[in-house]
């Protein structure tokens, strides 16, 4: 039974497949009562949903997901209920946009030089219209050109061969910008996301120590890839560290086989009471 909460969903403003209108229809169909749009490095999907949601019986939380670097590795930081007009938040959005576009053009050049995969000016301009263009979009185009049979193959065989260097926002910068804008900063899938190896406990603790030193406020404890026992362990860590407990599916529409409201591998129902972030007064 799917949960009625989902605080980690992507639209086609980044690497999801649902438009905000389509996602809202899916949310209604799934019986979701509280949800967030958390696109990568952009708030365009969240702002579009904010306009659509007026008068709806569901609770919507504007979110974002920043890809970050830090001393102990990398992390994805979710920001909820920010003030999008805040100077600090606008600054981190611009930084993320600049890094993403630089990475995009590095990949375009690499694919041309190393694999003779070429894109027309029209194709590049159409890709740049996507607010948070990334590997899935390039992968789909490589498949359309007949150079790979699936998007996953295109990414693994071609795009991932490109080393883009420093292409992530500093975690301290992301967290401080979210908090300065009145939002709450949460570490997304702290033990590893979809298609990632599980983070060893010692590395998780080292990363958590670093992120909390920057002001991290919560952990995404309930997540579609994690068994219930792992979710509960993370929730216990969060409580002991004085952090909010959050949860989300990481649904990307048809780009990933993750349904809305799935907050653990057993698809066990997770109640509002288990997610302390919903009682924070911030979300």
Mean pLDDT: 93
Helical stretch count? Answer: 9
Radius of gyration (Å): 18 Å
Give the CATH class of the largest domain: Alpha Beta
List the domain count as a whole number: 2
Instruction: Give the overall shape.
Output: globular
Record the SSE blueprint:
Blueprint: E1 5-9, H1 20-30, E2 34-37, H2 44-52, E3 59-70, E4 73-80, H3 87-115, H4 121-128, H5 135-144, H6 151-157, E5 169-170, H7 171-180, E6 184-187, H8 201-213, E7 218-223, H9 228-240, E8 244-248
Helix pairs in contact: 3-7, 5-6
Describe the model:
By secondary structure, the chain is of the alpha/beta class. It has two domains: 5-86 and 171-279, TIM Barrel (Alpha-Beta Barrel), CATH 3.20.20.140; 93-161, no CATH class. Helices cover 39% and strands 16% of the residues. The protein is built from nine helices and eight strands. Strand 3 (59-70) and strand 4 form a beta hairpin. Helix 3 (87-115) packs antiparallel against helix 7 and helix 5 (135-144) packs across helix 6. It starts with a strand and ends in a 35-residue tail after the last strand. The mean pLDDT is 93.
Would you summarize the structure shown here?
Helix content is 39%, strand content 16%.
């Amino acid at each position: 039974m799917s949960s009625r909460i989902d605080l980690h969903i992507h639209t086609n403003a980044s690497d999801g497949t649902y438009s905000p209108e389509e996602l809202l229809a899916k949310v209604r169909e799934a019986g979701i009562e509280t949800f967030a749009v958390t696109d990568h490095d952009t708030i365009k999907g969240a702002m579009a949903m904010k306009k659509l949601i007026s008068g709806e019986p569901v609770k919507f939380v504007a979110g974002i997901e920043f890809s970050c670097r830090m001393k102990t590795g990398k992390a994805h930081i979710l920001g909820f209920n920010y003030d999008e007009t805040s100077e600090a938040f606008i600054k981190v959005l611009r930084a993320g946009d600049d890094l993403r576009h630089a990475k995009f053009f590095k990949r375009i050049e690499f694919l041309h030089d190393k694999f003779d995969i070429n894109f027309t000016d029209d194709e590049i301009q159409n890709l740049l219209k996507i607010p948070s263009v990334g590997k899935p979009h390039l992968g789909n185009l490589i498949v359309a050109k007949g150079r790979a049979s699936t998007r996953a193959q295109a990414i693994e065989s071609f795009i991932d061969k490109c080393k883009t260097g420093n292409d992530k926002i500093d975690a301290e910068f992301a967290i401080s910008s979210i908090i300065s804008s009145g939002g709450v900063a949460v570490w997304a899938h702290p033990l590893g996301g979809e298609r990632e190896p599980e983070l060893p406990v010692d590395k998780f603790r080292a990363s958590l120590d670093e992120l909390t030193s920057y002001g991290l406020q919560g952990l995404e404890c309930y997540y579609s890839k994690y068994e219930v026992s792992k979710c509960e362990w993370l929730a216990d860590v969060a409580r002991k560290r004085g952090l909010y407990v959050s949860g989300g599916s990481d649904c990307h529409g048809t780009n990933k086989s993750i349904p809305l409201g799935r907050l653990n591998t057993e698809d066990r129902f997770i109640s509002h009471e288990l997610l302390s972030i919903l009682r924070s007064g911030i979300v």
